[in-house]
Amino acid sequence: MITDRPVVLRMHDVTRIHGAGSTAVTAVDHVDLDVRAGELVAVMGRSGSGKSTLLNLAGGLDQPSRGAVVVEGQDLSTCRPARLAELRRRHVGYVFQHGNLLPTLTASENVSLPLELDGVSVREARAAAVSILSEVLHPDVVDRYPDELSGGEQQRVAVARGLIGSRRLLLADEPTGALDEVTAEAVMRLLRDRCNDGAAALVVTHDAAQAAWADRVVRLRDGRIDSITGDRPASQSTTTQANDTLTAELQR
Ligand SMILES: Nc1ncnc2c1ncn2[C@@H]1O[C@H](COP(=O)(O)OP(=O)(O)OP(=O)(O)O)[C@@H](O)[C@H]1O
């Protein structure tokens, strides 16, 4: 049962008001949400409903005006900046719409960097980078620099960088935005596999096909949770056959 698993992310009565006075905007409004190990939660809602703000709060990139965000048992509001930075580096993987790859590093160096910063040996980190990249990118391009890659390839590198290692909370803001259908499926499969291995993921998407990979779908409206649907068991994944087909298509 998924409810037996540890809570990786707890958002308790979280409100985030941007700005002040007459221009104040309540982007997230009294949200309660737990995401457990093994669980992939999709966040949907119209533009401006608060999805990105929610994700930024979950990863400690933004602070709530009220309420508490707890990651791996640690209330982020009680962390000193150095501890918060360490917690984010060790436990949280981010995938943003615009990957922000470092231009002076190759694709595989960009992906291995988080592990190297965490003290993993360069050799081990590079091997892990090549391994995760092989799931979403043709091996011929892993040694190219970002400006030698297409937009979709850069996006895939950014996904691999966000998901490398054993970080337990994965936060993805439209991770498949610039990708074709087959590659988008591969990225969702990667996220799904990470969750099946024990990570917890919060993924913003506009795409119902991608939300179908989630255990639960949270719909936001005006910063509030409008509905939560689905309770697919976390262990359920796509069939082996579907995985094989996707891998074959990507390697073409
Ligand atoms: N830094 C900010 N200052 C002021 N208002 C902001 C700020 N960031 C977001 N907002 C407002 O908060 C609300 C929620 O924004 P948010 O970006 O979280 O929505 P979203 O659901 O992610 O939208 P989209 O799907 O368009 O990316 C919007 O009304 C937005 O204009």
Structure description:
The protein is an alpha/beta fold and 252 residues long. It has a single domain, classed as 3-Layer(aba) Sandwich (Rossmann fold), CATH 3.40.50.300. The protein contains 8 helices and 10 strands. It has helices spanning 51-58, 81-91, 107-117, 122-133, 151-163, 181-196, 208-211, 240-250, and strands at residues 7-18, 25-36, 40-44, 66-71, 74-75, 92-95, 169-173, 200-204, 216-221, 224-229. The strands form 2 sheets. It has a 6-stranded mixed β-sheet with strand order 6-7-8-3-9-10. A 4-stranded antiparallel β-sheet has the order 2-1-4-5, covered by helices on one side. The longest helix is centred in the last third of the chain and has 16 residues, at 181-196.
- Helix amount, in percent? 25-40%
CATH superfamily: P-loop containing nucleotide triphosphate hydrolases
**Biggest β-sheet description:** 6 strands, mixed
Spell out which ligands are present.
adenosine-5'-triphosphate
- How would the global form be characterised? globular
Oligomer: single chain
Number of strands: 10
Low-confidence stretches: 233-252
Query: From the alpha-carbon coordinates, what is the Rg to the nearest angstrom?
Result: 18 Å
Mean pLDDT: 88
CATH topology (fold) name: Rossmann fold
Which structural class is indicated by helix and strand composition? alpha/beta
Cα-to-Cα separation, first versus last residue: 39 Å
Q: Count the domains.
A: 1
* N-to-C order of helices and strands: EEEHEEHEHHHEHEHEEH
Strand arrangement, major sheet: 6-7-8-3-9-10
Strand percentage: 25-35%
CATH architecture call? 3-Layer(aba) Sandwich
Helix segment tally: 8
Region (Disordered): 228-252
Biased composition (Polar residues): 234-252
Pfam family, one: ABC_tran
GO molecular function: ATP binding; ATP hydrolysis activity; transmembrane transporter activity
